[in-house]
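ZP: hey, is the flavin-adenine dinucleotide complex queued? I don't see it on the tracker
AM: it wasn't, my bad. submitting now with these inputs:
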Amino acid sequence: MAVNPEKTFKFVVVGGGIAGVTCAEQLASQFPSTDVALLTAAPLIKAVCNFKQVSKTLEEFDVEERPSSVLEEKYPNLRVIQSAVKALHAQQHTLQTVDGLEIHYEKLCICSGGRPKLLTQDNPYVLGIRDTDSAQEFQKRLSKAKRIVVVGNGGIALELVYEVEGCEVIWVVKDKAIGNTFFDAGAAQFLIPSLDTDKPERAATCKRARYTIEGPAATQGLAVEPGSALGPDWHEGISLRGAEEVSVPLVSVEYQSEVKQIYTHQDFLLSPLASQTADTGSWPVYAQLTNGKTFGCDFIVSATGVVPNTEPFLHGNSFALAEDSGLKVDDHMMTTEPDIYAAGDVCTAGWEPSHLWQQMRLWTQARQMGWYAGRCMAADVLSETIELDFCFELFSHITKFFNYKVVLLGKFNGQGLGLNQELLVRCTKGHEYVKVVLSGGRMLGAVLIGETDLEETFENLILNQMDLTPYGEELLNPNIDIEDYFD
Ligand code: FAD
């Protein structure tokens, strides 16, 4: 949609990912006769669909990439402007875009997401996976690869090493166990055998529809602007197959190690390492690890988290930044600049959180923050008061790892509890893994892997903080129907 070079909107939201789209939708529906602008660098926006409230705090939904026209058709007062922000003048309440637009706002919400924290910049052999384009580049490179090195221990690395077939994977994790971000060594032990088993046949359908961009957007090179982050099903519909015919998984894990140095083929041959390393082969790139080993490979995947996308907004303004470089927001999602809010991966929760909640840069939190930020902006305009939403009371996340359903609740990894915690574990190999975190007899967190059907009961026990001391280990006795027990 064409806009005048200068335009004023009551509400402007930057970012077409889950946080930005949810925030803009919230505002557009609450103020149907007010102009709302959604400014985004990428040609497609992310839309939440099939939203399901699984329990009080657990939610599940799918995400689809859609053309922005879908949003404009749904909300006649919502204008999607495809242009990347290059500068923000917080005092003047204006944004400047790379296309020379100047946009004035009364209230602004920054939802510009994050970008992969790469091991090294500008190395053609180091890839990060963030959006659909980078996932497709990965797939293309993988199809010709015989060995890759994957660095990182978060959700992306976990999914990737499980899904890749026909290619040897050297998985470099800095921790003692895999999946440290999401669970403990016990759960890792439970999941590890899945790497050596055949994967179930996958449905041929693709949940994430990819739209082809035609016309000016494609030719102006706008597709190179950062797209939205992918979510849990990012590998669905794309074949993650390497160049080798074998389908047996070829994953080896290098624990407690990091990449010390990366060598090109040429540099490697000239280095003393070439004579020290056994079985060097001939590879385009080599990764020297801190554990002393060196691996040649076709390319390296850097899956070591994200850095909040704050640059275009910082110059000349005085945002408080958190230690992780996110825009610090208070319990109304407000940054330290007047009339500027932030939500999703770009922000860091700066309020004193509930003892059962922590921020993690996840899809669900991007949606919750975007929605809540929209409500706070509305409340501010209407001079209404608003309480921190209930979704920030208890951390809850539902996902799939290694084809198992995974539910994480509260302080699922004993975060911040130190020695002041007791763990109860029930594990049936290949079937389920249940871990409960207790402190002072009260349940503070849980990890549920497999079809345990315990999420609702445990969520209630965590929320009501009932003293569970009398039940002891019976809590996880598989012969007791715990749901009936606490009814
Ligand atoms: P984003 O989705 O990154 O959106 C940012 C938006 O801002 C984009 O539209 C971008 O174009 C726009 N933008 C950026 N800069 C500018 C600018 N200067 N001007 C204008 N617009 C700009 N989460 C889970 O919960 N479960 C998972 O299993 C999971 N798996 C993941 C797998 C991968 C490969 C990745 C990369 C992420 C995964 N995540 C997962 C994380 C999840 O996708 C993100 O937390 C979430 O999508 C963040 O949403 P967001 O709206 O904050 O940011």
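AM: back. The chain has a mean pLDDT of 87.
ZP: great, adding it to the tracker
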